[in-house]
Amino acid sequence: MEGGDKSEEEPRGPRQALRMGTLQSQENSPEERLPTERSRLRPTARRVLMTVLVFSALLASSVLLFYTFRNCGPSPCQTPACRDLGARYLASGDSGAAPCADFFSFACGRANGTSGSFQALAEENKSRLRGILEAQGSWHPGLGEEKAFQFYNSCMDTHAIEAAGAGPLRQVIEELGGWCISGNWTSLDFNRTLRLLMSQYGHFPFFRAYLGPHPASSHTPVIQIDQPEFDVPLKQEQEQKVSAQIFREYLTYLNQLGTLLGGDPGKVQEHASLSISITSQLSQFLRPLEQRQAQGKLFQMVTVDQLQEMAPAIDWLSCLQATFTPMSLSPSQTLMVHDLEYLKNMSRLVEELVLTQRDFLQSHMILGLVGTLSPALDSKFQDARRELSQKLRELTEQPPVPARPRWIECVEETGVFFEPTLAALYVQEAFGPRTQSAAMELFTAIKDALITRLRSLSWVNKETRDEAQDKVTQLQVEMGAPEWALKPELGRQEYSDVQLGPSFLQSVLSCVRSLRARIVRSFLQPFPHHRWKVSPWAVSAYYSIPDHAVVFPAGLLQPPFFHPGYPRAVNFGAAGSIMAHELMHIFYKLLLPGGCPACDTHALQRELLCLERHYAAFPLPGRSFFNGSRRFLENVADVGGLTIALQAYNKRLLWHYGETTLPGLDLSPQQIFFRSYAQVMCNGHSSQDPHHTHSPAPLRVHGPLSSTPAFARHFRCPRGTLLNPSSRCQLW
Ligand SMILES: *[C@@H]1O[C@H](CO)[C@@H](O)[C@H](O)[C@H]1NC(C)=O
Ligand SMILES: *[C@@H]1O[C@H](CO)[C@@H](O)[C@H](O)[C@H]1NC(C)=O
Ligand SMILES: *[C@@H]1O[C@H](CO)[C@@H](O)[C@H](O)[C@H]1NC(C)=O
Ligand SMILES: *[C@@H]1O[C@H](CO)[C@@H](O)[C@H](O)[C@H]1NC(C)=O
Ligand SMILES: *[C@@H]1O[C@H](CO)[C@@H](O)[C@H](O)[C@H]1NC(C)=O
Ligand SMILES: CC(=O)N[C@H]1CO[C@H](CO)[C@@H](O)[C@@H]1O
C-alpha cells in the first residue's frame, strides 16, 4: 500500500469541528478566552448580553454534542494511510493477550521472529529509494543525478558483470605490480603497493586510517590510525576445535579466490596458508578496547615523524598523503593513534616478512583486496564470500542471515557513493513540506511539554531548572534532512571526478576515490553546523553532545511512526515519544553521581533507586538481565520520554479538534497513543541495538507504561496487575 505523502488528511466535516468545540468548552481551554477579552472594549450591557448569549449557546451545544460525542465517539480516520496502519496494528498485535498483564504481546505478539519495526522501516524505505532509482525519466536532467542512476543500473546489470568475470580484477592486480600466483609479476615494492591499496582501492590490510574529529575540538578533523578489521576472528579465544574449523573454512575461501583468478591450485594453497598465518599473527597483537581503556591508553597523539620512528616498516607520510589528498601533510602533522602498541608490533612483523617472505606478503595484500572488492565482482566471488560468512555464523552459533536481494545491495551502494543526490531525491519524495511542518509542530509540542515538566520536578532546584530550560531552548534541531538536502539547489553535486565504466569494478573504484576526496574536502572547509552522522533515509534519531543538536532523519518520520494525516495519538505516541526520548539525553549529566550538586540529591537518589528496583522486578525473557549504567540511563529516558509525549498529547487534545481513531481497532485515542508507543518497540525479544545499550523490547514497553498511571486508567487495569503496580516512581 502506498503510505506516502500524497494521501491527504481526512477532510474535517462541520460535524466534527462542532463536536470538538464541545470538548473545548467543557475543558475551558485558553483559546476560548480570546473572544471574551476582545469584547471588553464594548459597552457593559452589550457585553453582559453577549456573555449570557455565548454561555447559553455553548451550554446548549455542549449538552447536545456531549451526547453526540458519547454516542459516536471520535470517528475512525479512513484515509489509505490510516487504513494501512490499522491493518498493520491488527496484523502485529495479539488481541488474545491481556493488555494489563502483557502489553508487549498485545501490541507486538505476532511481530515475533520477524524483523523489528525499525528494521522493517529501514527496508521499506530502501524500497522507496529503489522506486526512485528505477523510475526512468523521473529525474531532472543534471550530471549528478544521471551518474547516480547510471551507477545503480550498472550495479543491477548482472549480465555485464558476469560476462566481465575476473578480467577487471586481474587488471587491478597488474596495476599493483602483479603477484606470483597468476599473471605477470614484477618485483615487489612494498610501500608502493600499500600506498596504492590505501589510496586507490580503499583496502587497508595492516591498519585503518580515516578522518575523524579531534579529541580536543570536535570541529577540527584529525587523521586517525586504528586497528585493521579482519574477515575472520583468528584470535585464540574460541575452543581449539572451533578455531581449527574457522581456519579450515577461511583456507577454503582463499583457495577459491586464488583459483578463480587462474592460479595453480598447489601454489594457491601455499600462499593462502601463509596469508592466514599473517592474519593470525596480526590478530594476536590486537588488544580489546576494554583492556586499552583499563590501561588509560585509548589513543595517543603523535606526529608522522614520531610514528615513523616507532613503526618504521611503513612509509607513513607517502601512504597517508596519497590517501588524504587534497589535504597537505608534513612530517610534523599530528595523528591520533588508537593502539600504538599494535602498530609497533605490526611494523616488526612486516619488516621480518619483507626479509624472508616477500612474495607471500604481496599475495596476502592482494587476497585481502579481492575480499574487499568482492561486492563489485561476479557471482562466483560473491557466493564464495557468502558461503564463508554463513559457515562462520554456524561455527560461532549465530543465526544465519537470509540472502539479500541484489537491489538492496545496489540501493545501499548507490546511497553511499551518491548520498547528496539520493538524499535530495528521497526528501522530495518522502518528506514534503506538509510532513516537514507537521514534524516540526510535533517537536515543538514535545519541547514545550518538557519545559513545562521541568517546572514541576521535585528534585530540581530553581537554578538548575533555569539552566536546563536554557539548554532545551538553545538546542539545535535537525528535522528530516540536512539543510542542503531540503534545499536541493544548495547540495547539487556533479561528481565530476567520478568515471563510470568500462566495468562495474572500475566504476566502484572510481566512486571510492571520489567519495574519499569529497570527505576530505568537506572536512577542510569550516563547517559551523552539525554534520549529519546518518543518511536522511536512516531510521535512527540521535543527540549529539558536542553540537548540542538532536537529529530526526526523514526515514524515521514515516509510516508507521508518523504521518501528517494520522490520528494525533499515533504521531505523539510513536514519533513523539522517540523525540522526547532523545531530548531526555540532554539531562544525562544531571542523573550521574555528583552531576547535580545543587539538586535535592536525596530525592533524586531515592527516585533513581526506585526506578532501578522497578525495572529489576520485571521477569525478563531469555538471558538478558538488567544492569545499571548506560542501559539504566536509556530506561530513564524511556520513562521520561513517554511521560513528556503523553503530556504533550493531552495538551494537544485540549487545544485542537478533530482527533480520530484507527479503523478496525476498538481503541480510544488515548489507548491508540499507548499502542503506538509500544509499536515502536516491536522489534522482537532481542535488542537490535549493536551496543545493547537499550533494554530488551518487552521491558522497554512494560517499564515505562507501568510507570504511567494514565495507562492503567485507560486500559482499566485492576490494581496489582503488572501494568498497574501499587506504587510508582516520581522521577519525571
Ligand atoms: C514468540 O517467541 C517466543 C520465544 O522465542 C516463543 O516462545 C513464542 O511461541 C513465539 N510466539 C509466536 C506467536 O510465534
Ligand atoms: C603480461 O605481460 C605481457 C607483456 O607485458 C602482456 O602481453 C600480457 O598480457 C600480460 N599478462 C597478463 C595476464 O596480463
Ligand atoms: C608486542 O611486542 C612486544 C615486544 O616484542 C611484546 O612484549 C608484546 O607482548 C607485544 N604485544 C602484543 C599485544 O602482542
Ligand atoms: C617503506 O618506507 C619506509 C620509509 O621510507 C622504510 O623505512 C621502509 O623500510 C619501507 N618498507 C619496506 C618494506 O621497504
Ligand atoms: C553491572 O555493572 C557493574 C558496573 O557497571 C559491574 O561491576 C557488574 O559486574 C555488572 N553486573 C553484572 C551482573 O553484569
Ligand atoms: C515507511 C515507509 O514510508 N514505507 C514506504 C517505503 O517505500 C515503499 C515503496 O515506495 C512504500 O510502499 C512504503 O510505504
UniProtKB/TrEMBL annotation:
Domain of life: Eukaryota
Residue ranges crossing the lipid bilayer per the database entry: 48-69
Record InterPro entries: MetalloPept_cat_dom_sf, Peptidase_M13, Peptidase_M13_C, Peptidase_M13_dom_2, Peptidase_M13_N
Cofactor(s) it depends on: Zn(2+)
GO terms (BP aspect): proteolysis
Domain Peptidase M13 N-terminal: 99-482
Bias type Basic and acidic residues, positions: 1-13, 30-39
Domain Peptidase M13 C-terminal: 541-731
An example molecular function term from Gene Ontology annotations: metallopeptidase activity
Annotated segments matching region Disordered: 1-39
Alphabetical UniProt keywords: Hydrolase, Membrane, Metal-binding, Metalloprotease, Protease, Transmembrane, Transmembrane helix, Zinc
Identification of the protein by name: Kell blood group glycoprotein
